[in-house]
Amino acid sequence: MIDPLTSLLHRQAGRHGPVMLMYHSVQPGAAKPDWPWAISMRRFREQLDLLAAGGWTTTTMAELAAKPDRWPERTLVITFDDGYADNLAACEELHSRGMRATWFIVSGSIGRAPGWEADRRPHGRMLDAGELREMHAAGMEIGSHGVGHVRLTEVSDDRLLEELALSKTTLEALLGEGIDSFAYPYGAWDARCESAVRRAGYRYACTTRTGLALKDAHPLRMRRLAVFNHDDAGSLARKLSLTTNDGGWNNVFHYLRARAVARVSGNMTKK
Predict the structure, then answer these.
(1) For residue 118, what pLDDT band results from cuts at 50, 70 and 90?
(2) Which structural domain, as residue segments, surrounds residue 63?
(3) What residues contact 39, with CB distance under 8 A and at least 6 apart?
(4) Which residue, 13, 76, 166, 173, is most buried by CB atoms nearer than 10 A?
């Protein structure tokens, strides 16, 4: 259950355009993970139940971007970055509710431990080839997150194209079909990266900038809201309402105060 004010805010969510969420690891049990980018399975289930009860329609990023003007209110894309093995259980939770999602896979670490550094990240391997095929067969989209999870803005032109092209061909060979979607690692993005993504053959890409998914009306600059280890169903509902990463009460009160001031100013202007 969520509180009455959050419930009221959530009723307004999704009316102005589709929203995208960004998850990483979904760890078993109910304990709060140490890694900020992970969430417990208990809270993940609670969040999915909130979305289901709220009438949200889930789709993949590629399908949303391909038909940006054809989606009803409360359309949502759920995305997962990196491809942790615990995501398989998250996929099963989604599938059991008739929901779909998009996974961005680091192709150089498929089936083994991550090849890049991250403090307090969960231990263990990434999703393997068989698991990715299984998820794809269940209606989930598989996209690319590069070969080595590097900051694309900091590498040479040759390395940039290698990260994009090799990850694409690796995943296409694994799944037997084209890969259209990409997520910029760390959200590191600039005009050079965008141009390289297009040249590598991707049609859609997402950043970590917040706001409505299609706010920029550009298929290579889609926006997402991050889900963190402290987020429960209530804070997720508030994030969806405010289209921001901050679902805390201070941000809610700033939002409500700004709306009230705007309403009063508008009424004064009409007089």
Answers:
(1) confident
(2) 4-270
(3) 23, 25, 26, 27, 33, 47, 227, 228, 229, 231
(4) 76
User: 172, 150 in Cβ contact below 8 A?
Assistant: no
Query: What is the CATH number for 174?
Result: 3.20.20.370
- Give the model's pLDDT for residue 263: 78
- Counting the structural domains of the chain, the total is 1
pLDDT at 258: 85
